[in-house]
Amino acid sequence: MNAYWQCLRGIVLREWLRFVLQRTRFLSALVRPLLWLVVFAAGFRAALGISVIEPYDTYIPYEVYIIPGLACMILLFNGMQGSLSMVYDREMGSMRVLLTSPLPRTFLLCSKLLATALISLLQVYAFLAIAWVYGVRPPAMGLLIALPALLLVALMLSALGLLLSNAIRQLENFAGVMNFVIFPLFFLSSALYPLWKMRDSSEGLYWLCAINPFTHAVELVRFALYERFAGLAMAVCVGLTALFALLAVLTFNPQHAALRKKG
Amino acid sequence: MSALEVSALSFAYGSRQALNEVGFSLAAGQFAALLGPNGAGKSTLIALLTRLYDLQSGDIRVSGHSLREAPRAALTQLGVVFQQSTLDLDLSVEQNLRYHAALHGLSRRQANTRVEAELTRQALTERRREKVRELNGGHRRRVEIARALLHAPRVLLLDEASVGLDPASRLALNRHVRSLCAEHGISVLWTTHLLDEVQASDALMVLHQGRLVASGQVDVLTQQQGDDLGSLFARLTRPAIAGATA
Predict the structure, then answer these.
(1) Is residue A235 part of a domain?
(2) Are B114 and B106 in contact (CB under 8 A)?
(3) What are the chain A neighbours of B75 within 8 Å (beta carbons)?
(4) A174-187 vs A62-92: helix axis angle to the nearest 10?
(5) Do A94 and B71 touch (CB under 8 A)?
(6) Which of residues 19-48 of B touch A (CB under 8 A)?
(7) pLDDT tens for residues A196-237?
């Protein structure tokens, strides 16, 4: 058991060291949601009135509405960036080092997912701290309650990223895939606008948003931040995390990548 | 018991056969050179030995442990230096070593002891805090060897480990690895396509188009065939001789 713990600790520590060394990556992960919060939200505040909706008890400014969506946006980008680093690692060979560990491959991959998720959480809380200073202040207890919700979402999106990276033949193909994954997931969700607004515009788009896993991720975090429990969102996120992780582990095989290259 | 035993190993990329019924064994403390032109199947063999690829047919035993049946026990006895550097360039020498120790489940105390021992053995103690990016090619290879030996394996695989090094570093690396065999009883499988890295007393295996076309001690093989090593290698791998360098 100790061997597993040491291995997990080592993988998390390596991700931490890489994160600390890549300050620009940290800054860009923060700048993106902050721009949305400060610039986009200011412009949209007047255009988009938010009525009283759950879990809020009263009318809220648009900045308050988009905070959970932007927190999840950090997790989405990091999950995908994590998978980008998997493709990079696979091409550069450092994935080979990970796989020479005598511990089971499933454990190694799950440890890598957990490490990526934990580093993402640091960025989310750094963002929430800046938002707090900016004046968007969810209940203090909500910030604590949201921690497991954010971790679950981070794991779900990292597992999705790993699953995608298994399907990507090489690094160059990655950017295109991202455009077909990140943008639809983000914009077809409740991150930037409540779904009833979307329903006013298009019933079809509303249903796409309603079945989007990212919508459930955002709602889980939104409710947790306001000390409420979103049962359906939780069930969807737990189920999809398990499904994505299972598929990612089953489809992870460097041999397949080699066969595709040579084939 | 052999330190490394490969039996009836075959592997195909789809319809293309990369390895065909390859079999050999290494005794404890033996240095064996695996020669082969580019595309002979060396990299596929290394990928199978390190469990990067799953076995299709045949078996590999490391210190008696089957990679198919007891992969954990087998991999614990195996150290690897890959052809392409797999070090984290932005981490320090010591951080790279500690990461590897963790992957092998060594406790903090074990890691401390092993890291100190390997840094000393590779004469890298003074460079432990330097980032790998700041090291030259020869030192990076030494870090990779230190890393490969950190968990005290009985078998060390070096896949074209001297590629990209200057002649002096290449020679030093070759000598150093031989001393590991002589002084510590570690068995070494050294894959290369450079004939000057092979000595007369070495065990030699020549891989060509996925088949083992010669196997035995170098001086015995050359006497039997009445050739020097260069001519023997050229004759055995004739269709692909362009990949070999004397």
Answers:
(1) yes
(2) yes
(3) 100-102
(4) 160
(5) no
(6) 47
(7) 878 888 899 999 999 999 999 999 999 999 999 999 999 999
Could you write out the DSSP letters of every residue in A39-69? Answer: IIHHHHHHH------TT-SS---HHHHHHHH
Contacts of A250 in chain B (CB under 8 A): none
Domain around A186: 1-249
Which chain A residue has its CA at the smallest distance from B54's CA?
A: A255
Q: Which residues contact A113 (CB under 8 A, 6 or more apart)?
A: A82, A155, A158, A159, A162, A245, A248
Question: Is A256 part of any domain?
Answer: no
Q: What is the ipTM of this complex?
A: 0.84
Cβ atoms of A164 and A190 closer than 8 Å: no
Beta carbons of A11 and B103 less than 8 Å apart:
yes
Judged by CB atoms closer than 8 Å, whether chains meet at B104 and A4 is answered as no
Asked if the structure places residue A255 within a domain, the reply is no
A10 in contact with B, Cβ within 8 Å: yes
Tell me if A101 and B75 make a contact (CB, 8 A cut-off).
yes
Are the CB atoms for B140 and B77 separated by under 8 Å?
A: no
Q: How far is B205 from chain A (nearest CA, A)?
A: 24
Residue at B166: amino acid letter: D
- How many domains, in total, are found in chain A? 1
A219 within domain boundaries: yes
CB-based contacts of A27-32 (< 8 A; 24+ apart in sequence): A29/A74, A29/A77, A29/A78, A29/A123, A30/A74, A30/A123, A30/A126, A30/A127, A30/A130, A32/A73, A32/A74, A32/A77
The distance of A109 to chain B (nearest Cα, Å) reads 12
Tell me the pTM.
0.85
pLDDT tens column, A141-192: 999 999 999 999 999 999 998 888 877 766 556 666 667 888 899 999 998 8
Chain B residues touching residue A262 (CB < 8 angstroms)? 13-14, 16
**CA distance, residue A167 to nearest chain B CA (Å):** 17
Give the closest-approach CA distance of B99 to chain A in angstroms.
Answer: 5
Contact B14 A262 (CB under 8 A): yes
Which residues in chain A are closer than 8 Å to B13, comparing Cβ atoms? 258-259, 262-263
pLDDT (tens, 9 = 90+) of chain B, 246 residues, equals 799 999 999 999 888 899 999 999 999 999 999 998 888 888 899 989 988 888 999 999 999 999 999 999 999 999 999 888 889 888 999 999 999 999 999 999 999 999 999 999 888 999 999 999 999 888 998 899 999 999 999 999 999 888 878 888 888 888 888 988 988 889 999 998 888 889 988 999 999 999 999 899 988 988 887 788 888 888 888 764 444 443
